[in-house]
Specification:
Length: 204
Amino acid sequence: MPLQKKTKKPVKKAGSKLAAGKNDKSLNGKTGQSAKTEPASPAPSAAKVQLQAFERAIQLLHQRNYGEAKQWFEKARQGPSLEVGANAATHVRMCERRLAAPPPEPKSAEEHYNYAVALINLRNLGQARQHLETALQMEPSADHVHYAMAVFRALSGDTSGAYDSLKRAIDLQPRNRMVARQDSDFDAIGKNPRFSSLLYPGKE
């Protein structure tokens, strides 16, 4: 319809040209603005990776996971931002002091369990066992403590003990079987036929 009007009435055609000219100017203005903004979109940079490492370290610090927090702070020290690097270095020393300081003595079964898990993450298996045993004495039906004991025994190379502890954890809470299937701490003994049958019952 607009094209037919333009061919019949030259005046309107001229007007349409003016209108088109205005539209062209406005479009050029818009495209000019977009051309300026598109290159400004930030790409992932080393500074961003450094900041993400620092933020991850802070999260672990708040969780009192000082060993992993220290590792992430070490990564954050290597980035291009001098300010973030300096803060990361300060926090590395803080983590080292926390790791060296004697922790408060756990009192409840849950506190013994939490402390044992932290020790397992640090691969301090000797002390972890003591706290897990104490937690089980206080709460013998705590499935998550039996599960942690299974992890400890698996990392220690005690396949038979890991089987017994995990079976007890699954008997108390069946969902522990699904959790164990995805737990990399059991990778070393996962191919053991007896252990495999526990994770995948009925599978040949």
